[in-house]
Amino acid sequence: MIGVDENKNVVRLMNDKDLIVVNENIDFRPEKIVVTEDGIAYIVSSDIYQGIVCFDADDGFTNFFAPNGVKVTIDVAILNMWKNIFSDEQQESMIKTLPSPYNNIYLSSDNLFYTTAANVNEGDEIKCLNPLGINILRTPQHKSGGTAFGDLEVSYENNEYVTSHFIDVHADESGIFAGLDVTRNRVFQYDRECNLICVFGGTGTQEGQFGKVAAIEKIGAQYIVLDNHRCSITVFSPTTYEKEVLSALEYYNKGLYSESIGLWKNILSKNCNFAVAYRSIGRAYLQESKSKQAMEMLKKGEDKYFYSLALKEYRKEFARRYLPYFIVGIVLAAFILYRLVKLIRKKLLDEGA
Q1: pLDDT tens per residue, the chain (353 residues)?
Q2: Between the chain's N and C termini, which has fewer beta carbons within 10 Å?
Q3: What is the per-residue DSSP string for 56-109?
Q4: What is the pTM (predicted TM-score) of this model?
Q5: Which residues does 230 contact at the CB level (< 8 Å), separation at least 6?
Q6: Rounded Cα gap, residues 277 and 301, in angstroms
Q7: Which residues does 79 contact at the CB level (< 8 Å), separation at least 6?
Q8: CA 142, 306, 131: angle at the middle one, nearest 5?
Q9: Helix, strand, or coil here: 13?
Q10: Degrees, nearest 5: CA angle 189-191-194
Q11: Are 117 and 102 in contact (CB under 8 A)?
């Protein structure tokens, strides 16, 4: 890979001579690159499964960064089972199970690496890697065992399983990111907690649809999508509804839940299935010590963690409110029982006499 300046002078040259030390069969074909402020280059090559290729500021290969894990399938599970039985020689002759390579990378303004990959484990289709190579995205769907990104419903076309295949990603300074799905030529937009905000685009010939998407970028509030089938670009501007959602999310991301209640209620009047709205209102009620109302909203938003906090607060409120009456009731019941037992004993003694 060659880097040139504005005068077309070669200023950087990164090749595969040092990569042979790791694996002599590697075919180094750089496809995507990002460069940090200190000059470190992170390169994606579809032939390299060891991870993202890193070069230092002096163009020397340093290491592979954050490789994908091997996708767990029935075939892989059976293969691993046989490996526990076979000898070392037999294992060497078996087909190797290798992780999938990345197909794109994006460096955000806060120096986090957003990546895309296909044929990976659920939740790894889009990653946000910190400088240590740890994926910090934790999707609500993936926690519950569902599909993390893209189409959440299983579908089949021509007797083949159809799933989202992300080829590019963009993230802005607020943490909102958009993944580009080449399967149905759509854009999936998520907030920083991986909650789905909206989906736009599609396959077709109408305005806003594509033949085959190739890349996505964002300028200001507008998304720009490249269609390499038609050799064209399409510019998407946010609707009034999305502007309201993004405005409410600003409060949500800052933890100012109470200040955003009005905005979220207005959004719910237009979309009663928006889970983030219920979560934000529920957290606002929790801040205002309205634990019962908070539980109702958080349950609708499927926010298990804050629901447990609201339930804990509700139990405390219940105990503070009714414990004195409960104690008085127990004392009164004990006194009545004592008097009753005393009367019965006296009556039995009188009858015996």
Answers
A1: 677 767 777 777 887 777 765 566 677 888 899 999 999 999 998 888 889 999 999 888 888 898 888 766 555 555 555 556 655 555 554 455 678 889 999 999 989 999 999 888 778 899 999 989 999 887 765 555 555 788 877 677 777 777 889 999 999 998 899 999 999 999 999 998 888 899 999 999 999 999 999 999 999 999 999 999 999 999 999 999 999 999 999 888 888 888 889 999 999 999 998 888 998 899 889 988 899 999 999 999 888 889 999 999 988 888 888 778 888 888 888 888 888 888 888 777 776 65
A2: C
A3: -TTS-EEEEE-PPPPP--HHHHHHHHHHTTS-HHHHHHSPP--PPPEEEEEE-T
A4: 0.80
A5: 210, 211
A6: 7
A7: 94, 95, 97
A8: 50
A9: strand
A10: 90
A11: yes
Residue 34 structure tokens: 């990002």
Give the HSE-up count for residue 19: Cα atoms under 13 Å, Cβ half-sphere. 22
The type of residue at 78 is I
Hey, what are 159's tokens?
Answer: 């007797």
Token pair 């484990």: residue = 121
Placement of tokens 């794109």 in the chain: 104
- The single residue listed with the structure tokens 């905000």 is 197
